[in-house]
Amino acid sequence: MDRPKEKDVRYTGLAGGITGCTTRSLCQPFDVIKIRLQLQVEPIHSRSSTSKYRTIPQTIATVYREEGILAFWKGHNASQVLSMAQGMAQFTFYERFNKVLREMAIFEGHDRARNFVCGAFSGSFATFMVMPLDVIKTRLVSQDPDGGYRNAFHAVSSIYRHEGLRGLYRGLGPAIMQTAPLTGGQFMFYNLFGDVIKRLKKVPQEDMLGSTELMICGALSGFCTKLIVYPLDLVKRRLQIQGFSNGRKTYGKHFVCKHLLQCMYRVVRKEGMLGLYKGLSSSLLKAAITSAIFFTFYDKLLYSFLKGLPQMGHVIL
């Protein structure tokens, strides 16, 4: 939630990094399922005879049967570094942008606009910084069980050797286009829903909401924003696997495209408009759960730092 402008922002990076690691550990399986569904060219339908993955329960069962329980944490090391770096960068930038924009007359009385702008800029900066890690995570999650990369370090060297620096930034355009409204919307909706709950419960604006209320605000903000920008997330994933067909031979047809517009056009032409929303249900579930944990843990953790680090058992319960 919004904090008074005089509050110290020194601990935001630490709180964001810890929050990112915690959330990633809990939610990585949702990401694996989401990415598998996003990258499948064949229809996602229970009656499809040509599709490897047809429904969320069937996808979970297939991944477990073919690759074992650890497959749900494929790419976890890269994902953990990504989440820690992204959490640190995103919240550090957000709190600092927020502190500056509070002093600007144009945002006086427009708190939600300020939340959106701060979130959009902080998310964009963080995305650019961690994009190579996101590409590596996508490749590791989507490759065959005995596929091309042994680990994250091998993936980095192999991508750079065969595809150059550009390979580590595949999908950057749609990633920024998705992240700016996504992160901006998350912060805007999170603070908006928080203010609504405070008014309904007659809670003073300067007081911290309870964990349940914070989780509701986080879940709603994640759900709303992911629904709006989802097609760009799918396009980003499709672009990130270009040049990686040899590592995905058991996953059906390989989707080929060169840039954002061509990717969107080919998805619609071959898979219909609904192709842009493949994996939406698993993505919305993941977004709601992730945002609920992410914002709640961050706000409670930062609150504890600012109050002098009380016992964690008291803070997060």
Automatic annotation (TrEMBL):
GO terms for molecular function: thiamine pyrophosphate transmembrane transporter activity. Mitochondrial transporter mediating uptake of thiamine diphosphate into mitochondria. It is not clear if the antiporter activity is affected by the membrane potential or by the proton electrochemical gradient. Keywords: Membrane, Mitochondrion, Repeat, Transmembrane, Transmembrane helix, Transport. Solcar repeats lie at residues 7-100, 110-196, 209-304. It comes from the Eukaryota. One of its GO terms (cellular component) is mitochondrial membrane. This is Mitochondrial thiamine pyrophosphate carrier.
